[in-house]
Amino acid sequence: MTLDQLRLFIAVAEREHVTAASQAMNVTQSAVSAAIAALEARYGVKLFHRVGRGIALTDAGRLFLPEARAVVAQATAAENILKDISGLRRGTLKVVASQTIAAYWLPAILVAFRKRYPDIKVELAISNSEEASRMVREGEAEVGIVEAVVDDPALTQWPVGEDHMILVQASSLLPPLIDAAWLRQQNWVMREAGSGTRAALELYLGRYDIGIEDLNISLVLPSNEGVQTAIEAEAGIGALSSLVVDPALRAGTLHAVLQVPESRFFYGLRHKERYQSPAATALLGMSEFTAVSRGVQT
């Protein structure tokens, strides 16, 4: 039994006329007759009385008609859902972002996306870069945005934004010279392993041939806000995104020791083989995601 057969049966039943049904459905009379005959032959029932040139529903046909209508209506509803999804009139987009991005960079973009596509629901999860990449790899999120290059052959990644890391402290007394010896002498407050902020700090320290194990670490905290608060309480120095510390620098509760010269990029992530929904395509096609690098992927 096919949907086309059901549609042709309904058309004939409603008009009690094969020619009128064929004209309404824009098919030949023989196609209509063949569809009805196929249904009758397959199930061994007669759906229509054929008396002379007239046609009328049998008892079986009358019982079958509301069921056929219900099936076609349900199929039409399913088809409309797919049309709505492809036309961005319905759907859910699952995004995961690392903390700095989710708290400071991404919200304005999601607001712009929501205004443009008000019928698309966005579900945002917040994790560190390592966990975010796992979620995209395993299909728990369709789009990821992280602060570090991810070593995962299953994922496509490309730069979508940038900022700078700033080394900050509570004291306004800045050191005259920043070298490896000074960095090793300080007490440090830092993010947990796996975070993009931690990875950026490790990359910077590598310029001085310093590993994390060479530092005096006073606290390791799982959020930017926790690190900032601890540094303000004079627990040590630390490196945070300029997006995070700019308000504190302006307020004077933190002081910049130095700005890391190299830009730190934010990277979009998606699975190389999983289907990309129209909603994800629309989000990633927004100008905010293409301003830094158009089509550059790793």
From TrEMBL:
Pfam families found in the cross-reference section: HTH_1, LysR_substrate
PROSITE patterns: HTH_LYSR
Keywords: DNA-binding, Transcription, Transcription regulation
InterPro entries: LysR_HTH_N, LysR_subst-bd, WH-like_DNA-bd_sf, WH_DNA-bd_sf
Record-annotated HTH lysR-type domain positions: 1-58
Superkingdom per UniProt: Bacteria
Entry's family note: Belongs to the LysR transcriptional regulatory family.
Protein name from the UniProt record: LysR family transcriptional regulator
Organism from which the protein derives: Gluconobacter cadivus
